[in-house]
């Protein structure tokens, strides 16, 4: 099987050239937190399988083709009669993006535990890592059961489970999110959250108490994303912080997913915590320095590109 299995709603995205209410052009692409991570990992040379569902429409074809073109295995990407979901991005100004989702009754929301079982049954050997996010359980009971099934199958197969909290406040109430995400977090080996999301993984307290609670529950590493301030990792043995890589930020969307792809790549490569974090802040910086959620993510040979002086020409 692939080194990594991930699941979720991959959607088509429209990236408007300007304010949408004025009309004008838009660029069609693919979006979705787990799909972004899958592409990020595939670019770094890892075997990744994506489980999900798209509609029997041209946008579904685009999602499938893009994932396949990026080297993500799509054997577990089902075609459902429901339409492919759409997300619309309007970058109102550098650093501020409006995001509108059109995902109600879309194919991605039909994801079920059966899809996950099919994904795991596709290959005889288990993945090394399962990556899930808090977006998918917020989509409805079927996707929530799919995430639970994936975590159960991964744990019983000895795979490491990574949860990126990725809270979407418009999809569910904070109390439901906290209950579901806390239950998921304590089953994970790696928990990734922003500073604001961390309280959704426990009963209360400040960052130190929440992190200590997760480690006491059996989580092996808690990774906190801090935007332009970088990221931290806390394990039972060490606490490390790395500042962000200095780049000109042109598009903040997708930084968290890019960071997770880099961090998990470090996990798969057996790197020590500091090097895992360094790869995560590097891929996160690529995402903010380039337009698009995943389009600018680095291949393995490009990871050192941020060390080049500004104005370099790579010939
Ligand atoms: P999310 O997109 O989930 O909100 P963050 O904004 O925290 O996640 O970004 C994830 C990571 O990407 C950060 O930990 C940091 O390493 C990197 N990053 C984010 N913003 C910037 C920035 N302006 N400059 C450089 N790196 C950044």
Automatic annotation (TrEMBL):
Keywords: Kinase, Transferase. It comes from the Bacteria. GO terms for molecular function: kinase activity. The keyword Kinase applies. Signal peptide: none annotated. PANTHER family: 2-DEHYDRO-3-DEOXYGLUCONOKINASE_2-DEHYDRO-3-DEOXYGALACTONOKINASE (PTHR43320:SF2), SUGAR KINASE (PTHR43320). This is Sugar kinase. The lineage of its organism: Bacteria, Bacillati, Actinomycetota, Actinomycetes, Streptosporangiales.
């Amino acid at each position: 099987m692939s080194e990594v299995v991930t699941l979720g709603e991959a959607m088509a995205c429209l990236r408007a050239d300007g304010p949408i209410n004025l009309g004008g052009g838009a660029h069609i692409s693919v979006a979705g937190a787990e799909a972004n991570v899958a592409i990020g990992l595939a670019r770094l040379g890892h075997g990744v399988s994506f489980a999900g569902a798209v509609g029997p429409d041209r946008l579904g074809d685009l999602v499938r083709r893009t994932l396949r073109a990026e080297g993500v295995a799509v054997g577990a990407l089902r075609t459902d009669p429901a339409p492919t979901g759409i997300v619309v991005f309007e970058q109102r100004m550098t650093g501020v993006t409006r995001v509108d989702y059109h995902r109600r009754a879309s194919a991605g929301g039909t994801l079920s535990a059966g899809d996950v079982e099919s994904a795991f049954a596709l290959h005889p050997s288990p993945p090394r890592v399962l990556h899930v996010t808090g977006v998918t359980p917020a989509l409805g009971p079927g996707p929530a059961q799919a995430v639970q099934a994936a975590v159960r199958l991964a744990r019983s197969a000895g795979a490491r489970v990574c949860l990126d909290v990725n809270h979407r406040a418009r999809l569910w109430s904070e109390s439901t999110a906290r209950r579901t995400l806390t239950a998921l977090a304590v089953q994970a080996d790696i928990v990734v959250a922003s500073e604001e999301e961390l309280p959704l993984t426990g009963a209360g307290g400040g960052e130190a108490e929440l992190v200590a609670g997760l480690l006491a529950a059996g989580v092996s590493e808690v990774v906190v994303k801090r935007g332009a301030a970088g990221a931290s990792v806390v394990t039972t043995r060490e606490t490390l912080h790395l500042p962000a890589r200095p780049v000109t930020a042109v598009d903040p969307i997708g930084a968290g997913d890019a960071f997770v792809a880099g961090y998990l790549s470090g996990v798969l490569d057996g790197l020590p915590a500091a090097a895992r974090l360094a790869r995560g802040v590097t891929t996160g910086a690529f995402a903010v320095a380039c337009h698009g959620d995943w389009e600018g993510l680095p291949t393995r040979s490009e990871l050192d590109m941020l060390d080049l002086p500004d104005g370099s020409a790579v010939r």
